[in-house]
Amino acid sequence: MNREAIFSDGTREFLDPWEVRPGQRVAIRVRTSRYDSLKAVLLTEKEPIEMRLDEENGAFSFYKTTVSMGESPFRYIFSITDGVETLYFDRYGVAEEQRWQYAFIIVPGFYTPSWAKGAVMYQILVDRFCSGDDSNDVVDREYHYINSYAGKIPDWNRPPSDFDVCNFYGGDLEGVRSKLNYLKSLGVEVIYFNPIFVSPSNHKYDTQDYDYIDPHYGRIINDGGEPLKEGDTDNSHATKYKKRVTDIENLEASNELFAQLVSEAHEKGIRVILDGVFNHCGSFNKWLDREGIYENAVGFEPGAYHTADSPYVDFFDFHMNGKWPNNNAYDGWWGHDTLPKLNYEGSIRLMEYILSIGRKWVSPPYNADGWRLDVAADLGHSETFNHTFWKRFRDEVKSANPEAIILAEHYGDATPWLQGDQWDTIMNYDAFMEPVSYFLTGMEKHSDRFDEGAICNGEQFELTMRHTMAQFLTPSLHCSMNQLSNHDHSRFLTRTNHKVGRVAQLGSEAASEGVNVAVLKEATMIQMTWPGAPTLYYGDEAGVCGFTDPDNRRTYPWDNPDHDLIDFNRDMIMLHKVNSCLRTGSFVFLRCSRNLISYGRFSRDQQIVVVINGSGADLPCEIPVWKANVPMECEMEQILMTNELGYSIMPVKWKVEEGMLRMNLKPYTGIVLRRNR
User: What does 431-495 look like in DSSP terms, one character per residue?
Assistant: First the structure.
């Protein structure tokens, strides 16, 4: 029996429809070798269902059965036998025993937005992207936060300092508006914003007011007041900051600017995702108001830090040893008193408030297209409540905007949240960022470790990907956020120099020493051809380097970008967008070995083959492209090639003989080949 011919997955070629309603009938197919005389059986948790021969096409036979869906998740694997040998096929692959932990799963009623499947996303940390309005810039000593005064960095190109929370470069939403045409020309389809709500930090993961966009990113209509005097750290004296973030005209004008930005982005075919930080807020938050920002401000209630009579006391978990006024005895996330943990179990009103925030920003007039959820598995004080909350959150957000995406930050197995009733998908660390980084660079995603055994280890790459990709429902996999870099991890280009450490020890210049752009291009090629939503971190396409946080948050180099790298990203994005099977097609590994990974994406009408030589040496190889439904004898067209010398989009013909593609790859070469029916 030809084991390598056996294949199925949850895409349209093998599951029709691939997103199913309760009560709907669904056709399930499996592929085998045409030259084997076989019996195929669909094994379910209730009973086996014999499959019939549905189609013979090229080297393959396709077996099919139709099943009516109920309300509950439907789990299945395949049994394939030739009368002598019996094999099983699941989401991991072929096995000699039943592995129900890798069963295919259909969740009736679960679907992810069609626009998000394979969408090209672009992550923006607003302060570091582009400045469009100088009048809203933070001024020196505007306030004091975490042992530092807030201030403006006058040199846009200066790398961030080791402690960077209160340093601002002046990027804002007006700057993003001014670059929408650039993003459109690049091919971006979705902007993912790091948090943009009122907050004292430049990263804004310490929310001060969930109801309003920060005027420092938006518009300051009414300015006034004074910054702190040198030596004064009492923020109740920070009258300029208080005026800027509590004046209702400033807040409403900033919200209006955001609504306008979303509208203009939508006109250009670009959607917008917001960052929701709902596990914790910040010590500046108006409900706590530890800094006295909202005392005596018009329209704001007293904060829970100051009085037990505050309407927000139960929003936080105050300890028995605490006392008012100035009650500092509250739970902080991971013990950080600047990040008060929100006490959902103790306050129904808090939960309803946050749910209303979830609805508000995906509804008119703002019309955001979804949420990225920060440390989502940490929300609440118990796993039971955590799941209860996210089920409610999904119901509320989807009722307000059925096409909004719910995308969570998560490390490790997210299966409990990806059952179709909570999150749509996740930031794909385990089934994308980590394995790609290890294969091409040997580096852990923080640059904290170099693993010599992982670099160019194609077998390890394949085994890791098979296991981690199998943890996704198919609709979740195809919109998972596939990143090479982001605000929490080192820049991928820096990882190519194999320097272990952080900016405090190595210095910012070391991040760009000895980097290999050819390796970054190979990583981008994988990113744009892998199942999921390829997500660029602002500036990666322009050659930005940086160790992990805060060095990874450098400004976009508008005066000196890497134009060749931008062109390469533009061409790779175009390739991704014009080839439909790269958005929702099937995925199959072809051959992975030392220095080599190769895989196919295919649908009924199109086959794409990707071949990557991750090493600095020539690599002769034979690729079994027949496994990607490529005919045994045919020609494939090379549509993009990259290596140390540059890249090319000139078409080149490659001959497939006996189902094999034979080639000799130069160092750090990546190739994309295509065959259309």
Answer: IIIHHHHHHHH-B-TTS--B-TTTTTBHHHHHHHHHHHHTTS-HHHHTT-EEES-BTTB--HHHH
Packing angle of the helix pair 434-441, 458-469 (nearest 10 deg): 180
C-alpha 616/C-alpha 468 separation (Å) is 28
Domain limit, last residue, from 61, 93, 109: 109
Question: Does residue 275 contact residue 194 with C-beta atoms inside 8 Å?
Answer: yes
For residue 136, what is the enclosing H or E element?
A: none
**Is residue 89 a contact partner of residue 121, using CB atoms and an 8 Å limit?**
no
Position 559 in a domain: no
Instruction: Round to whole Å and give the CA distance between 325 and 8.
Output: 64
Two tokens, residue 70: 């109920």
- Give the position of tokens 């904290």: 448
Give the CA distances from residue 134 to residues 131, 218, 463, 487, in Å, rounded to whole numbers and listed in that order: 7, 11, 51, 24
Residue 557 to residues 94, 189, 395, Cα–Cα distance (Å) = 48, 22, 41
pTM strictly above 0.85: yes
Q: Does residue 661 form part of some domain? A: yes
Q: Read off the pLDDT band of 368 (50, 70, 90).
A: very high
| Helix (H) or strand (E) segment spanning residue 675 | strand 670-676
Q: How far apart are CA 503 and CA 614, in angstroms?
A: 27
Give the pairing of strands 209-213 and 60-68.
Answer: unpaired
Three-state SS sequence of 142-192: CCEECCEECEECCCCCCCCCCCCCCEECCCCHHHHHHCHHHHHHHCCCEEE
Listed residue (587, 451, 516) closest to 92, CA to CA: 587
Domain residues for 92? 3-109
Q: What is the CATH number of the domain that holds 612?
A: 2.60.40.1180
The full length of the chain comes to 677
User: CB of 630 within 8 A of CB of 659?
Assistant: yes
Residue range 27-50, pLDDT digits in tens: 999 999 999 999 999 999 999 999
Amino acid at 533: A
Q: Compute how many other C-beta atoms are within 10 angstroms of the C-beta atom of residue 296.
A: 10
DSSP E strands, 82-132: 86-89, 94-95, 104-106, 121-124
Number of domains the chain contains = 2
Give the model confidence (pLDDT) of 593-640 as tens digits.
999 999 999 999 999 999 999 999 999 999 999 999 999 999 999 999
Domain boundary among 83, 109, 135: 109
Backbone φ, ψ for residue 109 (5° rounding)? 90, -10
A 10 A CB-CB count for 215 gives: 27
Half-sphere exposure of 623 (CA within 13 A, CB side): 33
The predicted-structure confidence for 650-666, as pLDDT tens digits, reads as follows: 999 999 999 999 999 99
Query: Tokens in use for 206?
Result: 């310490």
In this predicted structure, the answer to whether residue 556 has a pLDDT above a threshold of 90 is: yes
CA 167 to chain centre: 26
187 lies in some domain? no
CA dihedral 54, 56, 60, 63 (to 10 degrees): 10
Looking at residue 163, its pLDDT comes to: 86
Nearest CA-CA partner of 674 in 597, 620, 591, 601: 601
CATH of the domain at 66: 2.60.40.10
Three-class SS of 305-366: CCCCCCCCHHHECECCCCCCCCCCCECEHHHCCCCEEECHHHCHHHHHHHHHHHHHCCCCCC
Specify if 266 maps to a domain. Answer: no
